[in-house]
Amino acid sequence: MENCFNLIDEPWIPIADVGRVSLKQLFSEPHYRALGGNPIQKIALTKLLLAIAQAACTPDDNFDWEALKINDLVKKVLTYLAEHHDKFYLYGEQPFLQLPSISKAATQSIGAVLPEIATGNTTILNALQIETELSDADKALLIVQLMGFGLGGKKTDNSVTLSAAYSGKSKDNGKGTTGKAGASLGFVGFLHSFLQGETLLQTLWLNLFSQEQINDLPYDAGLGVAPWEKMPEGEACETAKQLQNSLMGRLIPLSRFCLLNEAGLHYSEGIAHLDYKTGMLDPSVAFSDKKKQVLWVEPERRPWRRLTALLSFMEAESGGFNCYYIRQGLERMTQMELPMEKIGLWSGGLRVSSNAGEQYVSGQDDFVESLTFFNKEDVFKSGWYNKLKTEMAELDRLATIVYGATLGYFKSQKVDGKNQAAAASNLFWQLCERKFQDLVNACGEGEEQLHALRKHFAQFASTAYNTYCPNDTARQLNAWAENLPNLATYLKDVKQPEADA
User: Fold this and answer.
1) How far apart are CA 290 and CA 312, in angstroms?
2) Which residues, in sequence order, are CB contacts of 173 under 8 Å at separation 6+?
3) pLDDT recorded at residue 472
4) CA 216, CA 369: separation in Å to the nearest integer?
């Protein structure tokens, strides 16, 4: 095939407030704020951009990283892209992140491999779920997404195996197995986190590992070779084994072997990576080695509520969660001078359901993402994390009070109010999200600011209770008064908030 649509030159990457840009444009423009798209597109693109940056310039140690200015990184990346220009064609003899040898696999429609598209007998609830024809730019983004976020199930044609002795895609009777979940997705959806700067290039620089840091990661093959430089020949070839044990293999897992065609794409399971229970996982996933647990996506518990868990390494001997990008990035900053006052922590992902090996998006499954900024001086202050942890624990207690008060209100009227109590508690958390950034800032300022914020959170608790517990009739008024949330302990010396108007 003729080489065409080069990802270095053609616009295909969504940028917030800008639109689509090429790889060359992205690394040439210092003012782009952040990536666009849905959360798993942002994760997949961030990992691709970091893989390119690591391939172009991996600092020796943290001091080498500090000396590497963003402009220097950009020059090295642009030089690297120019040298590997022929490796980034979406179509051609060596299509980007695709294997022409997988053409024997059955063709799957594009909509069937997108989690947000309704196919088969799935009910279409809105226009966004209708399958439409994708542009080349959309197909490029799809290929990058599928490398780590392919849904498990029967959509992969596992009757085709490229490595002759490989048995991971077949049953004892010789028939193909159902496809495993993508390495970046997992069973119900991993929660991914990255440090974020004030610009996209700052974000890439903040998350760029040094060789010294890579040596401390659980990847025996170290950095590894970028897959577009050398694609595997099969599921178990030497290149595939190297990707299974390297940082490059976790950034671009190649969990799916794909090849675009006019009707859709040839689609089969790719490299099978070890899971988090063995200690192998993406550097953007938070993992507790002590408990052998990871942080999963929970749509009703938005990622900002996991901030204390993501930062739990700040506690001595906590045995909490450890996300390599967050921990190694922040620990590095304690020794360095950064050209920025604020550092962000972005978390997001997709929740999926599973049934008999088939993954799908249904019910309350959804995309989630949160971004919190904090002053870099505050993070390293003694006591900042403990204050934040205390305040979040108090908010958890308030949510429990709202739930119990709402449940008691309906119980007083001989009605099952579990659904209303859950909805009231959920509303309380939605209202709290408006002030969470202020809470993070206040933890570095002083008790006066924290007390002032407690009045707002107490008001949110009252608002949530009043929303689901009306007091229009005499019977309702009696139940409402009997079960009013007791906020005295939370407020302590703070004045009670004004009643709802």
Assistant:
1) 13
2) none
3) 92
4) 28
